[in-house]
Amino acid sequence: MTCTAKTRGFLALLLLLSIPTRCSSFSPSLFGPSLHHRHHTSITLHESTDSNGNQNQLTNAEISRYSRHLVLSDVGVAGQIALKNASVLVIGAGGLGSPCLLYLAAAGVGHIGIVDADTVDESNLQRQIIHGTSTVNVSKCESAERRLKDINPFVNVRTYKEEFTSENALRILGEGFSSTKAWDVVVDGSDNFPTKYLINDACDMLGLPWVYSAILAFEGQLSTFNYRGGPDYRDLLPTPPPPGDVPSCAEGGVLGVLPGTMGCLQATEVIKIILGKDKGLLVGRVLVFDAMAMKFSEIGIARLPGREKISELIDYQGFCAGPKSTQQNKEKQTISTEETTNPVGRTMDEVLVEDTAKSEEYNTILPIDCLNKMASGWSPWVLDVRLQSENDIVELPFTDMVVPHRSVRPDHIPLTGEILVYCKGGVRGKKACAQLVEMGVDPKRLYNLEGGILRWQKEVDPEMPRY
Amino acid sequence: MTLNPASPRPPPSTITIEVLFFASAREAAGVPSTSLSFESTDNDGSFNTKMLRTKLASNYPKLAALVQDEESITLAVNEEYVPYGENWELKDGDTVALIPPISGG
Could you tell me which residue, A59 or A34, shows the higher pLDDT? Predict the structure, then answer.
């Protein structure tokens, strides 16, 4: 037998009241069960679907699981069925994606997609709570899927173990969960500007709403973009900031719980969109959260007059690298290789920094060559261009000065003699060297430590900690 | 609220606004907020966001490289983003937030 959504809502309530039921009819025994009737009847229901393939009822197990939603009048049985039929794509199973995915699955969003090409690294676990120690080195898609299935086996998960790029974005967004219709809502769990613009433009082309967030240190931003013609990311930031101006979380650090807060807020927006509670959506407003001051501010944002609809996807790496480096991007195709051989948790934003640096003008030295050269008497002045907080974790023992790469100026270094510049992975060192050269320092004096302190640890001193 | 060059009454020569610094702007300024008084540099005595950017650049040298650049720091006046390319009028008592773009996730 089947029950309608309405009668099943009633049954849910009965379940909450721990009244044992038999679903066959509303017999008087339901309301006055005698003792020998006090057992839960197991009922098998036919799943029934409408013409769109949508389910229009909940099973008993779902009713039990979602009881706290079902008693909420703003969710209720109809809302829970809407969640069950909904499909949400989360791009990035990292700091933001982790809590968002967990809550979407727990809430009963029936079809969840995950895009992430990375594997779980130990340094992710401080904030990426969908993953665990047991899934270090496992692909993030797989790790996340396991956890989601454990939280809620009723959720269907589709994973994309690939980078989200201009080449695959429209396919991934457009095919949706079952390759029949686009995803209902998209969540931005990305950690770099190029991907945020890509999500924006692809969602604009397909008319999909998406929930934006970005985090750094103690601050987060949140908004719901492209919701029924509302403002989007290009109204907030029509032009990307100069490459290298904005640190990534790997470089600037992030309070672990911050993406937890922001990712939960993203999940809240997604659920409201699915439930059709659009009056209170963060449309035309950007929420700015300052965790240090524990303050939420709200900034109004309007659709820029004359902003045109996006008609095609572009090269977002080039777009965010600015006009100067587009040519260099075309010439240098070694970025991805360098990233895989030296995985230091860099994001695309940091890779861009590398592209814009004038790498050909100053010297580059491998850690092992540096060691050998020093053994034969080379004694350069050594400049650490990381943050002081990073230097506190670990440093090369012969470091003379610590100056963050953005602030490096010629008056920090001696007037004569050779300078060894190092950072964590070699990228900021390049930037610092290029900056010093631009400010008039003779490039022949400068040596950037290739691969930074991480490569030094790997190839020279394995006893040093990695971070 | 757009720039309105024709003001019926002569505006005050100095205004005081509340400035809020976020993210890297806070780091560069060294404070989370400040109360800033400044004089108009326009002949008609009006005040605008462009003028404020110049004033902030001179008051906070470390902020100078960022604040003059619209891509690097977005301004919000009384909790409304100033759209890219626009120069908004400011008046005494306004609150202006400096919100640099962030991209972490």
Answer: A59
